[in-house]
Amino acid sequence: MRVLYVADFVRDPNSGSSGSLLAIGGALADRGHHVDHLWKQMAPFTLPHPSLSRWLELPRRQFAQVAAQLERSSYDVVMISQPYGYLAFERLPALYPWTLFLNVTHGWEDRFNRARARFGWDGPYSAGKRAGLAATRILVNQACRRTLQACHGLISPAQKAKEYVQRTNNFPAEKVGVIPYGLEERFRRVPTRTDINAGTRMLYVGNYLASKGSEVIEKIVPSLGTEFPESSITFVVLPDVFERIRAKFGPAFGDRLTLLAWRDRAELLPVYSQHDILLFPSLFEGFGKTFLEGMACGACVIGFNEGGLPDLAAFGREAFYCETGEVAALKALLARCLMNPELAREVGIRAQHVARRYTWELTAQRIEAFCQQRRRALNLPVKTRHALV
At 203, which helix (H) or strand (E)? Predict the structure, then answer.
């Protein structure tokens, strides 16, 4: 196949969404497919607010970007990340009837807005802020609806987005491919964990934001740090939040608190491997590669049932999780593992075996199969001769 990936991201192998697209593209290329990428255009927008630019200007810009590329070269599949590409889905299939046009979601933007309104992680909201959010919600709903109406299919890394679009838009189940992300080979080669520690070492990795659960762990972890004096906690975050973390966790943990600056994903492997529990308290996730990397290194993941965690790990066997936002339940799960480090280790060892099954090669295979299924369902013709890039 000749595949074109389109995304309004800066090319960055260490970021979640951009890094995943690069990994998938690489895996497809390894399987003999030709893969091109179109990344974020850096020219400034003209509208005064970024939300207006994103939902009103970006669709026209992305349409022009894709149309120009299709004039230069022919593709069997065009995959556009996030729902800004609805103009491309609406206008281009008639011009390129042999091309499959798919949307790729990293969590589904309308579902993100629902979670934001429910948990208010960037509140409290002024009257003006509420009005702005309401207007943005209308624009998001419109873009999401038009994308679903016009695209040939949707690829999601987790079941939650599929269930959401089916429930809210009556989107046919056969048009959604749930295809989990994979692991780099180095994570799949981590030796099976065998160590049992007197105290349990906790780890948080990622952006230290309220939407990612920063306020949740500030509510529950310090008191547990006092209750379990053999426990410790490490944060791998951007240095600009070091002082806040010291203020929140330092009194309970003292020298059992470690702060590490964010680093390349390859350098995270030994950090995961030196800890027993990975905290995954995110209030919204599309997939959440951190939990899968932690599992691959033998960590017991404890968090909310967000992203791909409930799809890949059975509760109580390969991870512990509760309903999103149930802070007391999350604290109880964490306390249970701190009281019983051997339980956390057993779960981590089982998780390690499960995580090793998920490769980017498998992701690429499933994308191939989904593309073939959608082409058959749509009876798309085969273009016998491609233009050269």
Answer: strand 201-205
| Sheet of 232-237, strand order | 257-261, 232-237, 201-205, 277-280, 300-304, 320-322
Please indicate, yes or no, whether residues 219 and 337 belong to a single structural domain of this protein.
yes
> Could you tell me if 285 and 306 are in contact, meaning their C-beta atoms sit under 8 angstroms apart?
yes
Nearest to 353 by CA among 265, 279, 292, 285: 292
Whether pLDDT at 334 is above 60: yes
129 & 247 share domain:
no
Domain match, 125 and 154 both: yes
Instruction: Give the chain's domain count.
Output: 2
Q: Is residue 384 part of a domain?
A: no
> What pLDDT band is residue 389 in, cutting at 50, 70 and 90?
very low
pLDDT on residue 384: 52
CATH number of the domain that residue 88 is part of: 3.40.50.2000
Round to whole Å and give the CA distance between 142 and 265.
36
For residues 83-104, average pLDDT: 97
For residue 307, CA distances in Å to 30, 154, 258, 267 come to 27, 16, 27, 23
Tell me: do 155 and 49 sit in the same domain: yes
Same domain, 162 and 246: no
Given strand 153-156, what is the order of strands in its sheet? 34-38, 2-6, 77-81, 100-104, 153-156, 176-178
Any idea which residue has 């956390």 for tokens?
344
User: Are both 171 and 278 inside the same structural domain?
Assistant: no
Q: What tens digit of pLDDT does each residue of 147-161 get? A: 999 999 999 999 999
Q: Note the pLDDT tens digit of each residue in 124-134.
A: 889 988 888 88
Chain segment 41-83, per-residue pLDDT in tens: 988 999 888 878 888 899 999 999 999 999 999 999 999 999 9
